[in-house]
Write a structure and sequence with these properties.
The chain is built from four helices and two strands, in the order H-E-H-E-H-H. With about 100 residues, the protein is mainly α. It has one domain: 3-Layer(aba) Sandwich (Rossmann fold), CATH 3.40.50.150. Strands 1-2 form a two-stranded parallel ribbon. Strand 1, helix 2 and strand 2 form a beta-alpha-beta unit. Helix 1 crosses helix 2. It is globular, with a radius of gyration of 13 Å.
Length: about 100
């Protein structure tokens, strides 16, 4: 049994709507969500930041509630969510996530 996950750092395509100082790789959040929830369950992120957890939750068919007090990061999160409404972009994200997580 291993307790270390080897993952790539944040890719440039993950910063298409801006940068957050503590942004996590989308593949990491996907792996955590897959390991700890089922489809249609709720994911809560009380410090939403740029919305990476929400993007992962949406891509993996989970419900999401994010809380963020900084307007700048709220706007970034909203832009990232709107970006996912383009199905071709969502498919690209999913394929990159699957590759990063060996799915």
């Amino acid at each position: 049994m291993r307790d270390i996950w080897f993952m790539p750092a944040i890719s440039p395509w993950e910063k298409s709507c801006g940068k957050h100082p503590t942004q996590k790789p989308l593949g990491l959040l996907c792996r955590i969500i897959l390991a700890s929830s089922k489809e249609d369950e709720w994911i809560l992120d009380p410090f939403c930041g740029s919305g990476t957890t929400g993007i992962a939750a949406n891509l993996l068919n989970r419900r999401f509630l994010g809380i963020e007090k900084e307007t700048e990061f709220l706007e970034m999160s909203k832009q990232r969510k709107l970006e996912l409404e383009n199905h071709s972009i969502a498919e690209i994200y999913l394929s990159k996530i699957k590759k990063a997580n060996n799915l």
